[in-house]
Amino acid sequence: MSQCRICNQTTHQVIHFGKMPIANGFLRELDEKEFLFDMSVAFCPQCFMVQLEETVKPEMMFNDNYQFVSSTSNAMAIHFEGIAQEIAGKVADKQDPFIVELGCNDGIMLKHIAAKGIHHLGIEPSSNVAAMARKNKVEVTEKFFNAATAQEIVQEHGQADVLCGSNVFCHIEDINSVFEGASILLKDDGVLFFEDPYLLDIVQKSSFDQIYDEHVYYYSGLSVQALAQRHGLQLVDMVHQDVHGGSMRYYIQKGSDKNISQNVNDGIAAEKEWQLHQTEGYEAFKTKVDQICKDLKQTLKDIKQQKNRIVAYGATSKSTTLLNYAQIGPDLIEYICDTTPNKINKYTPGTHIPIKSYDAFLADDARNTLLLAWNHKKEIFAKEKSYREKGGKFITYFPEVVVE
Ligand code: TYD
Question: Most buried of 216, 267, 344, 379, CB within 10 angstroms?
Fold first, then answer.
């Protein structure tokens, strides 16, 4: 039993995963000592926030060894350019607008804002990716954002027209402080918008692999509305995004007198239909998750039993949860190919599957590939057309196991 980080109420446990390594804790050597933590996720019946119970210190995850680089997928590069265009449109009629992005990573979005000569600031605590952003001509400060940092930014740059973050708000344990910071940083007509994997997508697809150390919160319209209200802010719109396996972009403004879009009412109604406001919805989710793990492991075992090799595609952060919870290791998966240079020749956290280059996959004749980067299925199926034409199969598993 634990207390909600947002409102202090007693939460209801949804899934207990047991001891887990950190999702991006790829190993250089097999005998390296691994950091493990007790991973479980809980739901707050009061403010509807779904959250990790135990968390890992940010310094353990977002340090100068951080492996996650945004610019690894074409689809994501296009997505972030779209966000930059939306922002540029929003501030087109403003005098010297100021844009702040939390977790700007390698500058995948802000480089477009910088290229337009718009006053901006990226906030990125991982120094290795912050350095990449600087190479992209993005102004960056290596800090964690909170109310105190917001004050410092206002003193140095003035208030902001836009505060945004993609796949970063879910990482920040003290999210109350970020919302407090947003009220300090934003102009009265400013807008905060952020996007993260959407709880309703996770529950509908049973995509529990979104749950890992870096994701403290699993947002929904229900929980964001309650969180905004706590800080004198208002959820004014929510727009679904077809990235990261289904994300939601939430738009928030100061005050309580703004127009609320129909999207918010419809979105919250759909969440209630799936019982995201009560424990029953989460009990059904847990049952489906356990069934998928069982089915997937059996499918892989059957393929192996028929003397076929299995490899995997995309050493994603989220696959750390899938592989560890379903206990899928090197006995079933020979290696995982990945295009990220600093993941290659390392081993997966907890399960110790070797990671090889994409070229290794291209040179291979393995005909069964577990698609760990399932969120990029469209892009990968297009890229691997000839693999499939030659009889190669991908194994996917949300919302059910499919070999196709
Ligand atoms: P990502 O989608 O960011 O997921 P997560 O947040 O769970 O890490 O990661 C995608 C991973 O898959 C990344 O390591 C790069 C890799 N990848 C490939 O190797 N080839 C590809 O074609 C794509 C799209 C991704």
Answer: 267
Mutation pick for ligand 1 pocket among 74, 340, 357 (CB with most ligand atoms within 8 Å): 340
Is the pTM value of this prediction over 0.90? yes
Domain count within the chain: 2
165-199 per-position pLDDT tens digit: 999 999 999 999 999 999 999 999 999 999 999 99
| Nearest of 328, 221, 338 to residue 273 by alpha carbon | 221
- CB within 8 Å of 39: residues ≥ 6 apart: 16, 17, 18, 19, 20, 52, 54, 211, 212, 213, 321
90-123: per-residue pLDDT in tens?
999 999 999 999 999 999 999 999 999 999 999 9
- The CATH number for 117's domain is 3.40.50.150
Measured in Å, residue 70 CA sits from the centre of ligand 1 at: 9
SS3 50: strand
Q: Which residues does ligand 1 sit against, CB inside 6 Å?
A: 68, 72-73, 314-318, 338-340, 343, 358, 373, 375-376, 379-380, 383
Kindly state whether residue 4 falls inside one of the protein's structural domains.
no
Query: For residue 10, what pLDDT band results from cuts at 50, 70 and 90?
Result: very high
Contact 101, 70 (CB under 8 A): no
Tokens 């994603």 sit at which residue? Answer: 316
